[in-house]
């Protein structure tokens, strides 16, 4: 019997990957670690998943825990059960807020990952760890100026925010365990947007802030853009590509020990992205050159500017992000399992249409 432990349920990735993992292994049972405050939401999400696919019904246990505490805050009986079976771990829980306070980011992203790795080590010592599936981010690169390869991690890069920094430190914890022999696959998504076909997403953040600013204007839309917007790449990928990639590689032996860059091989520039958003929304883009430092100052300190733009200043750094992500090895690995990344031009239409049709979706996500 295999137990599959999920952290981060019922977030987007956990809700998408849990049923697919159970379908991959008909003998597996899932154990979803849930914070107490999300237990009701988790029960509803699980019920929806089981209604959609009766084959997974009754195969998931929701357990209350907390990754920020030793032992993941789990009852000792749950730990004993996990260590008594073959164990696969999907560590998905993290704080994704770019403006997060440092102490929260470190406690959740770094300490939480350390506690998950501790459990994985115990399972490996008992001879029962199948694999630790860890979701990181491309932005462990920080603001590295140049091409960042899948196996790069320590290049002396600076960091623009506590999210990027703490995810880098968390990946260091996982990479150290991997290098010591733990079976691990590390997944690094870039900026994740809506489904490539439906455009559906749980939240509107990141590039959606640019989109909402454009669509709140008339036929000619002014867009403050930094110098070099025609050269700086903005790497965004649809959510179904990320889910498909992780789900397929999680059962692929060749992915053990690998770091996978789930990024767009041919990303648009910031200007091209803005032009595509404007065109899909029936607007004509009129770029207004503006340094990001000036825009950030205005948003944070000039009365009325923040309400006008509705763009968190923390997101502006990504409009001048200097890093390019090499995906050659990942593209080849994904080809082995029949997964490829859709082009931005092919999914920007559904992305914009879903945004326009669903004003009820906000910018907050479960953490």
Automatic annotation (TrEMBL):
Q: Which domain of life is it from?
A: Bacteria
Name the Pfam families for this protein. NAD_binding_4
Residue stretches making up the Thioester reductase (TE) domain: 7-245
Q: Tell me which PANTHER family the record gives.
A: BIFUNCTIONAL POLYMYXIN RESISTANCE PROTEIN ARNA
Q: What is this protein called?
A: SDR family oxidoreductase
Q: Identify the species of origin.
A: Actinomycetospora aurantiaca
